Amino acid sequence: MNVVVDLNRCQGYAQCAFLAPQVFTMHGEESLLYTPVIAEDQDERVRRAAAACPVQAIVVGKEAGSGAR
Amino acid sequence: MRGEPRDGRIVIVGASLAGLRAAEKLRAEGFAGSLTLVGEEPQPPYDRPPLSKQVLLGKVPAENTGLPQRREVDAEWRLGVRATGLDPFGKRVLLADGEEVSFDRLLIATGTRARPWPNPAEAALDGVFTLRTSDDAGRLAERLDAGPRRVLVIGAGFTGSEIASACRERGLEVTVAERGPAPLVGALGGTLGTLATRLQRAHGVDLRCGVTVTALEGNGRLTGAQFSDGTRIDADVAVVALGAVRNTEWLAESGLAAGPRGVTCDAGCRAFDMYGIVTDDIFAAGDVARFPHPLFEYQLLSLEHWGNAVAQAEVAAHNMVNPGPRRRPHLTVPAFWSSQFGLNIKSVGVPTFSDQVVIAQGSLKDARLVAVYGYRGRVTAAVSVNQAKWLEYYQRLIETAAPFPPAPGAADRPESLVPVPSDVPDPKMLSHGPTVALTGHLPDRRLTVVQPAR
């Protein structure tokens, strides 16, 4: 599963960094860094983080075009 | 348009963010015909912003920035093959492998590529890089891992500044060469350019402004660089961050209004032909598109922004499968972000479309602020530094053409509400290309109140 964050929307509430710290980390006070390709054991945590995001900036889904290779 | 708008053959040339989001939107709007995506790079769509951040910091492998899909697109993917031509009469896209794809409607989303170093022999030296693709990022990250003695970054726009930031965070020595008077000055003007200068130096960057790199030295392998002020440095890595070139060469014989500034289209993403007549079956979206925006006096904008690629792709896709009266304009207020030297910089509106700027909240001293830009007495842009939560408020001021300078907010008292010139330089003075290019003429002054789409 992959994740992308719309960082125009993101306002640094850091809810995701609490719920899935292996995937989302704060870099400085406000910048968010994330791991786009998620390990399987993180799926549930990432889905919870996406649901909890106050500005709904997190998109989670199957890797796009993965059948195309 | 042949057949029903929700049927037929749609081809999307460009399989990155804009192409992917357009494909998803087409299916979401009920397009049931055949869909083909053509992409020059062999990888499925991936996200580029992490390349200059997570990837260069060594936190994420370059090949691991694939984009998630928002829905199934049921498309034929033609990846690793470049489009080389467009036959508008036969309605065919010609491919580099000699094949061709027929379409009823076409979306051009070929984006941009890194502007190469102008001297090919110097560009070929081992140690000279550009940063646009995941392959670029992978090679550069590997070289940074090896611990070069000094990295030279040529051009202090957003990409160059983020590269310099990542290098400093890794503890590498960095020299940044910028032709203009300050980093970021081409996008954000003089006031925030001064702040960027201070920050880079505080983080140990050897920042040299007002100079150009006149030669990259080396014999097979990069050893150093010479500057226009007569000085030179030793460097074993150089990253050329001189902005982007729009991928329009393949359209040279197409009869479309396509050139170095992009593919000109209307507010509904329909491409113009070379005579300025709008086509009804060829659309453009993302970095390659150049479109009029009512908030900025209908000047044609070319935006190299993540958010614009998404929003414009969705408008284009909607308009590709809906008849005239149901079509929508692309009116999104431009927005982008950058993360560098510990700061989160976010922008709404077009800061280069300004004559004055004021620090409306916070202060330059604390590097926590909102700078608001005005043009002829109305708000046209706002940039926050570690103050993102306030930006939405200013976006509404931009959308409603609110008077500039803005009234003081209730949150805190600004240092000074007296606007100063925004000092947006002539792009000719910069070593990197602008990420926002105002490329149209100035029509009669018109104030426009824009209602957000939907």
From TrEMBL, chain A:
GO terms for molecular function: 3 iron, 4 sulfur cluster binding; electron transfer activity; iron ion binding. Its cofactor is [3Fe-4S] cluster. Signal peptide: none annotated. Gene3D superfamilies: 3.30.70.20. Keywords: 3Fe-4S, Electron transport, Iron, Iron-sulfur, Metal-binding, Transport. Ferredoxins are iron-sulfur proteins that transfer electrons in a wide variety of metabolic reactions. This is Ferredoxin.
UniProtKB/TrEMBL annotation, chain B:
Its cofactor is FAD. GO terms for molecular function: oxidoreductase activity, acting on NAD(P)H. Residues 9-313 form the FAD/NAD(P)-binding domain. The keyword Flavoprotein applies. Gene3D superfamilies: 3.30.390.30, FAD/NAD(P)-binding domain. It holds the Pfam family Reductase_C. Residues 336-408 form the Reductase C-terminal domain. Keywords: FAD, Flavoprotein, Oxidoreductase. One of its GO terms (cellular component) is cytoplasm. This is FAD-dependent oxidoreductase. It comes from Streptomyces inhibens. The lineage of its organism: Bacteria, Bacillati, Actinomycetota, Actinomycetes, Kitasatosporales.
